[in-house]
Structure formats: C-alpha cells, structure tokens
Amino acid sequence: MKMKTLAAMALAGSMAAGTAMADLVIPDLSYRTGPYAAGGTPFSDGYQDYFALLNARDGGIGGEAVRVIECETAYNTERGVECYEATKGEGALIYQPLSTGITYQLIPRATADNIPLHTMGYGRTSAANGEVFNWVFNYPANYWDAASVAVNYLLDENGGSLDGKTIALVYHNSAYGKEPIRTLEELSAMHGFTLTQLAVDHPGQEQKSQWLQIRRERPDYVLMWGWGVMNQVAVQEAANIGFPMENFIGNWWAGAEHDVTPAGMAANGYKSLNMNPVIDYPVLAEIQSLVHDAGNAAGDGSHLGSVLYVRGMYAAMLAAEAIAKAQEIHGVANVTPAMVRDGMEALEITNARMTELGMEGIGPEFAVTCQNHGGAGQGLVQQWNASSGVWEPLTGFISPDASVIAPLVAEDSAAFAAESGITPGCL
Amino acid sequence: MLYREAGDFKTSYQADSQTFPIAFDRWRYWAVLVIAFCVVPFFVNAYWANAILVPFLIYAIAAIGLNILTGYCGQVSLGTGGFMAVGAYACYKLMTSFPDVSIVIHIILAGGITAAVGATFGLPSLRIKGFYLAVATLAAQFFLVWMFNKVAWFYNYSASGQITAPERFVAGVAVTGPNTAPWAQYMICLVFLTVCALIARNLTRGTIGRSWMAIRDMDIAAEIIGVNPLKAKLTAFAVSSFFIGISGALFFAVYLGAVEVGEAFGIQKSFLVLFMIIIGGLGSLFGSFAGAAFLVLLPVALKVIGVDVLGWPTDLVAHLQLVIVGGLIMFFLIKEPHGLAQLWRLAKEKLRLWPFPY
To answer: Which residues is A372 bridged to in the sheet?
Structure first.
C-alpha cells in the first residue's frame, strides 16, 4: 500500500509535466492492437491525417492549431475509460471512440462533463433523439438505418417483396451486434421474411457451427454485423460452404479491403453497406503531398484511400466543420466543448461544401437539429471486385424507412430518459 | 532497530495472537488506514479514481476472494470472471427491481447470491481436483457468460444487452451513475475492501481457515484428522464467491457504470485475477493487495512513461506492455514462485536482524 502511494506520487509528477497549451484538443481513442486493430488502424490514420492536413494547409481551424492526442484503447472498455479520464483534462473538444462498448460507457460520463460525443454509424442508435441525448450525436447514420437500408436494398432486388424469404443475421455477440435485431424483427413482421439470428462470440474466430447452420438452413440472404477479425473469418467460411457471395451483405463495419483480401478470389462478389463511397477524392492528393510527403503521416502511411481511412477522414471533416460552425456562432476561435456541441447541433453538410473540401459525394447531404442528431441515415451498397481489388459502388444513397425507425428511436430514448431521470428538451 | 519484537511485551493471549506482533507494523497499518480514509479522499481527482484507485480497490477484493479459494483452500478456479458477472447482474437486477433499498444492501445481497452460485459450481470439487477442477470452473465461466448474454431477463430486455447502473445514493451522496464525485466512488470501494479484508483475515486465522489450509496441504490427511471436506470446500467456494460477487457488483455499479458481459467478464478477467494472486502471492492477504496494485498500476505506468514522457507511438507502447507483463510473470514464477508477498516476508525477516544479520 505504501509502495503504491509512492509510485502514485511519482506518476502524478510526470503527469503534471505535460501541461496543456491553448489550442484545439481532439483526442483520438484509437486501437492499433488486439483483434480489432485491422479496422481501428486505418480509421485512426485517416482521422489524424485530416487534422494534420488542416494544420499544414490552413493553420488549423479558424486560425487555431489542432492538437490530436492519441490514446490506445485496444477496443477494451476499461482502457477506454482510462483514456477518456486521461484526456478530458487537456480540454478535449469532442470524442469519437469507434467502439459501441466504449460509447455506452462514455454517454453518461460525457453528458455529465458536458463534452460532445460523436459516434458516427455506431454507438447507441436512440441517441439520434437529441432531446434526450443532448451531448451525443450519431449523424450521418446509425445501425437501425443500416438494417433498414439493407432490407430496402433487398426489397428492390426482389421486386418489392420479401414474402417467404429467409434472412440470417450473423452478428458480433455484443452491444454492437445486438443493436440491429430490434429493427430487423420489426421489418421481418412488416415484409414477411423470416429472420434467423446467429451470434458469434468475441473475438469472432470461431464460426464453424454458425456457418454449418447456414449451410443446413440455406437462407436466401445473410446479413452480417461484424468487426475486426470476425469479418475475415466470416467471408472465408462463407466461401468454404459455397454460399453465393452476392447474397451475403455486411454492414458498413464489415466492408473494408482487409476483410475480403484474405479470402482471395473466393470473396469476389461480397457486398457490404457503406456510408462513404471510395472514389479518388481530390483531398487525398492534398493529404499525400502536404502530410505524407512531409513525413507527418499517422501510422505507417499505407492506408491512404482505403474504406476505413476515408471514413476516419470523413469523421474528422465532420468534427472540423462542427468546430468551424461553433467558431462562427460564438465568434471566438478558441472554442470550448459546450460551444462545439452548439456547432454540431447547427451543422449542415451540403454537396457544395463537400465539393469545396475536395470530398464530393463522400456522404449524403444532411442538417442536424436539436430533435434529430442522427442525420439523413442513408447508406449505399458496394460490391467487392476481387480481380481489380476495389469496392465498386452498386447503388446511390438509399434512404431508410423512417416510419419504422422513428417510433423505435422514440420508444428506446423514452425508456432511457425514464431510467436516468432525464426530462427531454433542447439545451 | 525499530523493527523488532524486543521490548514489545504481550500480557494477554489476545495480544499474543494479534495480526501484527511487531509494534512498527501496527503503526504502519494504522498509518495506511488513516492516509487511505482521511487524506486520499481530499486529493483524489477523476483520473486517479477512475484509472488507478477504484480499479485497484475492486481488483483487490476479487483477488482476496480468489486467494481464499486457491491460495488457502488449494482449489484452482478459472471462473472468477463468471462469478464477477453474477455479482454485477445480481446487483443490477436488485437495483432496478427495488430502487428504494440502499445500494450497500444490494451489493451485499449480490455477494450472497454469488456465494450461492459459487457453492453450486463448487460441488464438483468434492469429486475432482487440480486441472480437472480448473476445467469444471472454466465451464462455469463460459456457462455464466453465455447465460447473461442469452437470457434477456437479466438485462431487462434492453436492445443492446448492456446493463447500465442507475444513480444511487449513500447518505445523500451519489455513489453510482455519471454524477458521482471521485471521492465518493473511492470511499465506497475502500469501505468494502476494508471490511472484506478484515473478514478474510479473521476467517483465515480461525477454525474455518485452518480447515481450508488442511485440505489444501493434504486432503486425505485432513479428512483423517476430522476435517469435513464437504464443509471446508463448499465454505471456501461460498466465501470466495461472496467476495468476488461484491467486487463484480462494485466493478459494474461504481467503476464502469455500464457493462457488457462478454467484454467485461470474459475469460481474460479470470486470468487477470489469477495472475494477480500468483504474482502477489498465494495464501497471503498482502499478496492479494500487492498483486492487484501491480497489475493495475503497471499498464498505466508503462503508458505514462512510454507515451507521455518518451513520446513513443501508442501501438508500440501497447505491444511493449504485453511483452513486459508477460516477461515479468515468467520472471516471478522462476525467481520468486511465492510472489511479492514472499519478498515482503523476506524483507521483514532481514529487517528484524538488521544491522547484525547472520
């Protein structure tokens, strides 16, 4: 005990040494180790490189330099909490943990500390109701949107009816994987398809029995809510049982290059959702010349232009736009977390602005309001072409079925509000 | 010079059999308690509470629990994570079903429920030992995690399968939920740890503890001299699970506030607590504290040194951390199989003889 106190004091001394400077602090809760590193690394590289580009090209946002603090979570909630506590004292403006588990930890903490949380396409779906979740944003889309987009795409494929079809959901057995079930159950009752649920336990390397069941039951379609090593294993297993790849659709966290390349040509035709089509954005060339060629690339610099790199960059762009908006609203350059929240709530992303930023078509147009923190909810379907090694967009942005999702969001957020004693309202 | 029995006269049987026979140890013990209760709460901030002190206190309770079973009674268990999950889910169900009852009672009841579950899973220990028992407890680990994932009643049918601790108060101060002050989090864990450690210390010194140790050292001989193996083993499982259940309840309600069973109480948690008692020292309460402190502090210390001081990339530090923790475990197993507690014991022996060792 005594030894511990001494060690603790020594630690306190070293912590105090790294004091904060007056600039815009963005923590990056990344994971470059563990079974989910394959997805965490490119996302974090894209996130950091975009801020490095802003610093190099524009001198930051509104003249204030951006300082990114990276903290390794290994997709582990305890370490996520440690990272949050370690970075929030530095003046963190916005958190993007890229983990549904850590998001659930941070929602009450960030709300109590008045720091905005942006969980783009993951986290708690009902946070789309901004009257209950004042500090949490999940634009441009969430899991329930993804489920609905996937079903809408299948409806389109089948001439508007899924009656009598069977759809199997292969999901990561965690909060992340369970999120879409409620929506899919609702949709299955509405459209008359049968839903089979197949859970895959963390980290997802063991999927033999699930795919044997798929082989036995022969569902018409397989949807997958996977992440990390689980995706690669699932694509390989699907190839092993000869499941037709074009009927296998992953969500937007199960559709990156590293998920399909291990299976080689067998992965050809695998489909996934995406919220950011991968095309040759002009901004990537700028990052190459101003950040990578200057030797400031995050990580090893090998992920430039990959699906998750682009998504990380997209997340950084949305954060930077929200900060710029906050600077505009409050008229100060050195904004506080509360001002950034106001900026996020007033955020409007238009095609003209995306083109101006060199990211034409990276996402749908949307405007955030106090009532709707969830954005447009659109996603597109892409297909893997194994011979050329690219994800080819098959569709434009597909809208989810708001008539199904809105009541579910209202119901779940009302339950949360009752549980935690929140009176819904705008700040 | 200060550290010796000489001159410290014991005039009653009670004084003769006290926990700390040396006056210096007694003073040190009280000093630690005074610092922990009266000084630390005034200085603790959110980072210290959430990253270091609260996890240390909670893991210390879990390590004491496992140490009773494995260190004192010799029954190897790999089910710690599962039993912590029982404590957490029992606490959650009690908190949401009886919101008007004090959280302290809920945590103790959660410990009681875990004790019952632990004793049930301890039944096979009457027939099997060693590795075979370890595998049986491993089955408990997987079964319990699977059950909390599968049966929606345990997480009140929430869409994500997560359980979230509602806000609860002790004497008007929030101890769970997002608005908890760091000192309140720290104090409730400290009180539970102190009481648990006192109970454990007194149990291991008494009849029950001696029967556990007899079973550990040679179960056949113990049975011949009249120790009832059924009673000894099942009480060890029950008491051990009681402490582990309390630590699981605190881990969920006070420390994390929201957990997901597979991620928070997976097999890694069982191994982590087992490493704590192996590094700390089997069959020693001090070892439980030392092991918990070591494995909670080491990653944080390595991170602070690697990332904040030396400025290395975070992934390099995270990988180095795995290498260093693994290396240290091997080092301890080879160089000091009895753990940090044995180093402490040796240091005390040397101090007694100082400055004239022989």
So the answer is: A129
